[in-house]
Amino acid sequence: MIERIQKIQQEVEAYVFDENQKAESFRLAYLSKKGLITTLFDEFKSCSVEEKKSVGSVLNQLKRLAEEKYQTQKEVEETQQEVQGSGEDRSLPVYQFPEGSLHPLRIVEDRLLEIFYSLGFDVSEGPEIEDDYHNFGALNFAEDHPARDMQDTFFIAEHVLRTHTSSVQIREMEKGKLPLRLVMPGRVYRNEAVSARSNCFFHQIEGLYIDKGVSFADLKQTLYYFVQQFFGEGTKVRFRSSYFPFTEPSAEMDIWAGTDTEENRRLTKGTGWLEVLGCGMVHPNVLKSCNIDPEEYTGFAFGMGIDRITMLKYGITDIRDFFINDVRMLKQFSGV
Ligand code: DAH
User: Which residues are CB-neighbours of 198 under 8 A, at least 6 positions away?
Assistant: First the structure.
């Protein structure tokens, strides 16, 4: 019996399906009630106990093989039928779906986050609709102080559209967990005349580091590292003293673009220096408004425009190009 099983096994293995030998013919020949394998099983019942031992597993193996072969072919035939029914032509070349691409602002923001992550900063975000307190009051803008005019504000009833991401500093400090080392990206709004250089909304990234003993030297070193990473090793920077209500002392940081090209002279108004961000040591009044003791803790903060540095990085001359959503423009950018 064992030889017959082996012979059928070889037959099954060699069985080739075609137009005349479909799954159903295979089933009839081997697996149906009168099929060869079923007949072997009938015979098996009358074998001696000894014989059963040696034949049993070989026979079962044969049955499994035949069933698998039948099942696979049946599925193939079913799919063929479906395809024919649907009128689909599977021999046609595959349709290439157009690939998406990241928006240049997203590419730059991701890169900024990557650089600050590498310095141990975490990321956090706050609301775009703010109250006067978080956008101004807690940041040491005095009531009726002209400093509020520095930023033309959109008002919504009792609220404002945040004019800067500095409001997120307050939200984070209020949580009462120190030390803090955060970058906070997001969209901000200002009621400015729309032009190639300014839009009524744009993007900023805010940085904040509060701990015991944080100094201006830490601020400079952090920003210096950022510039080397983002704009390239050897990029020259300078700090100019400045004024912001929420920092004391305050500074603005410029990077050296040079005056060698027409474009650089235009961008830097002939000076060669490009302003990239505002920064400073967090004002004691700001710490106090968040219940942080300025005698115990100090910190630095900085804020920069993401749109602006993206324009610099890619030589984009009109900020509105970011938001018109012309896919031909938006598809051109790759990682920095
Ligand atoms: N919030 C300022 C602006 O929008 C930028 C800024 C300046 C942020 C100094 C800071 C800072 O954190 O320390 O013009």
Answer: 190, 192, 319
User: Is 301 near ligand 1, meaning CB less than 6 Å away?
Assistant: yes
* Residue type, position 268, single letter: T
User: Which of 4-36 are b and which e, b meaning 16 or more Cβ less than 10 Å from the residue's Cβ?
Assistant: ebeebbeebeebebeeeeebeebbebbbeeebb
Provide the token pair at 270. Answer: 């002939």
Pairwise CA distance, residues 273 & 255, whole Å: 6
Cβ 274 vs Cβ 255: under 8 Å: yes
Cα–Cα distance, 7 to 22 (Å, whole number): 21
Contact 319, 196 (CB under 8 A): yes
The DSSP bridge partners found for residue 201 are 189
> Rounded CA gap, 146 and 109, in Å?
32
Measured from the CB, is residue 280 less than 6 Å from ligand 1? yes
156 C-alpha to ligand 1 centroid (Å): 23
Ligand 1 center to 32 CA (angstroms): 82
Contacts of 122 (CB under 8 A, 6+ apart): 181, 182, 183
Q: What is the largest CA-CA distance in the chain?
A: 107
Kindly report the pTM of this predicted structure.
Answer: 0.73
* Terminal Cα distance for the chain, rounded: 73
Q: Is residue 10 a contact partner of residue 36, using CB atoms and an 8 Å limit?
A: no
Reading the block at residue 182, the tokens are 């955060």
pLDDT digits (tens, 9 = 90+) for 10-58: 999 999 999 889 999 999 999 999 999 999 999 999 888 888 888 999 9
Query: From CA 255, how far away is CA 275, in angstroms rounded?
Result: 7
CA 302 to ligand 1 centroid distance, Å: 6
